Amino acid sequence: MPATSQRDVRNRINAVKNIQKITRAMEMVAAARLRRAELRIQALRPYAEAIRRMTRQAAEAAGTLPRLAIMQEHEAVSNVGLLLVAGDRGLAGAFNSNIVRAGVAAGREHSGEGRRAVYFASGRRPASSLTFRGLEPAESFTGFTDRPAYADARRIAERLIAGYIDGELDRVEIFYNRYISPLSQVVRRETLLPLQRATLLEESRRGREDGAGRALVEYEPDPEQILGRLVPDYVEISIYRALLESTASEHGARMTAMRNASENASTLIDDLTLEMNRARQAEITQEIMEVVAGAEGLAG
After folding, report:
1. 13, 119, 176, 183: which one has the fewest Cβ atoms less than 10 Å from its Cβ?
2. So where are the chain's domains?
3. CATH 3.30.2140.20 matches 28-255
4. CB under 8 Å to 3, separation ≥6 — which residues?
5. Are 115 and 79 in contact (CB under 8 A)?
């Protein structure tokens, strides 16, 4: 192998080492951010479950839902809002693409049943992916996926609730990655509106079928008024929980992806080093053969 080729291999080794330094640094940053995200999820989950439980119990106690626009199920379901929650950045494996695939598949499902899918995106990646596929989002919410605040969830909830009240949307579904561990994230699909179809009431029905008892609660004021106050909070907290779960999932997926990239870089460096050593040995052998041939020529 010519000397220039050895230099090329050496340059490739140096380039891979530089990339490995970057991936290791990104892995460490993702690990630190993941820990903070885990703590936020642990702090929120009990509160979110309490809101869901209170909303479910108030709906059961009310019997018939109050005559509020947000509480009324539309006669016909023509437009379904699909909120896709992912990240602003890439380099996280299949984290973003899994959400986009699930949302697009749900959109095709609704289209096949005669309903129109209206897409909403939380994160630059799902927004750009939908636009690339020709599915322009009705609205995108970006710039906060690394550390979402409750105000971000409220802004999204207000937009979706307004769309439902104004008749722009007849149903609202949310897609996000539920955080299990740095190696495992599960795509969740939940119904937010209408309340009669919401995931929390579906869970309540399953609980009654399994024999779960109903809590004895006295309401003051009546459950209808309490439910009217709880539903917007339920939508907001559900979206906020999805944002936090998605953030933790993103950091976990990025940490895993960068760790795999670092390990692949180490393997590639070993292979390139072996290739360069073989080339050097071949060059030395060639030089020895030329010296021997020259010596034999002089001796002859």
Report:
1. 183
2. 28-255
3. no
4. 283
5. yes
